[in-house]
C-alpha cells in the first residue's frame, strides 16, 4: 500500500522484530506495526531498538519501553 501523503510504500502492518520476540505491552506491540510517519519502533539487531527517522536513515535508540518502562 502507498502512503496517502508521500506516495512512499507504507510500512503499516509490517514488523521488524526478532522471530522469538514477545512484546512487553500492547502499546509497544502496536508501535512495531505503525506507519513509518507515526511513532514506529523497530529492532536493529543485537538488542538495539529504536524509532526510525523517515528519509534520514538514522534512528533514536531506546533501551526501555516508553509506555510500561520495561528494559528492552
Secondary-structure map:
Elements: H1 26-32, E1 42-45, E2 48-52, E3 59-62
Antiparallel strand pairs: 1-2, 2-3
How would you describe this structure to a colleague?
The protein is mostly beta strands and 72 residues long. It has 1 helix and 3 strands. It has one domain (1-72). The protein has one helix spanning 26-32; strands at 42-45, 48-52, 59-62. Strands 1-2-3 form a 3-stranded antiparallel β-sheet, with no helix packed on it. A hairpin with a 2-residue loop joins strand 1 and strand 2 (48-52). The radius of gyration is 12 Å and the shape is globular.
Key features?
72 residues; mainly beta; 10% helix; single chain; three-stranded antiparallel β-sheet
Helicity range: under 10%
Poorly predicted spans: none
| Main β sheet profile | 3 strands, antiparallel
**Total domains:** 1
Order of helices and strands: HEEE
Mean pLDDT: 89
Strand content: 15-25%
N-C termini distance: 30 Å
**Major beta sheet, strand line-up:** 1-2-3
* Total DSSP helices: 1
Given the helix and strand composition, which structural class is it?
Answer: mainly beta
Shape: globular
* Rounded radius of gyration (Å): 12 Å
What's the total number of strands? 3
